[in-house]
Design goal:
Helices cover 67% and strands 11% of the residues. With 92 residues, it is mainly alpha-helical.
């Protein structure tokens, strides 16, 4: 096999790896979007059920900021980092 053929094969392998990496990133983004949508649906379902106070992970704060204000009006969000904080809020 010539050097040129080896280089072409290496380049093809790199292109295939780049494509696989891009597909993996695309799947990860879709999974994140699905998770955000699911979180929003849970919050809206809680509101429809009359629940006005929600305990969420601190990591979800940025996701809540993306929900239209009129959808979350009347809801109080408590953001926590530990299970102890959840327990404390739940027992208040």
């Amino acid at each position: 096999m010539t050097t040129q053929e080896l280089l072409l094969r290496a380049r093809g392998a790199k292109d295939a790896m780049d494509m696989a990496d891009t597909q993996t990133k695309d799947r990860a983004l879709l999974a994140m979007a699905d998770a955000l949508e699911a979180e929003q649906e849970k919050i809206l379902a809680a509101k429809r059920a009359g629940i006005t106070e929600l305990i969420l992970s601190e990591e979800n704060r940025k996701d809540i900021a993306e929900i239209k204000p009129e959808y979350i009006a009347g809801l109080t969000f408590h953001y926590v980092k530990t299970n102890e904080e959840v327990l404390q809020l739940a027992l208040e």
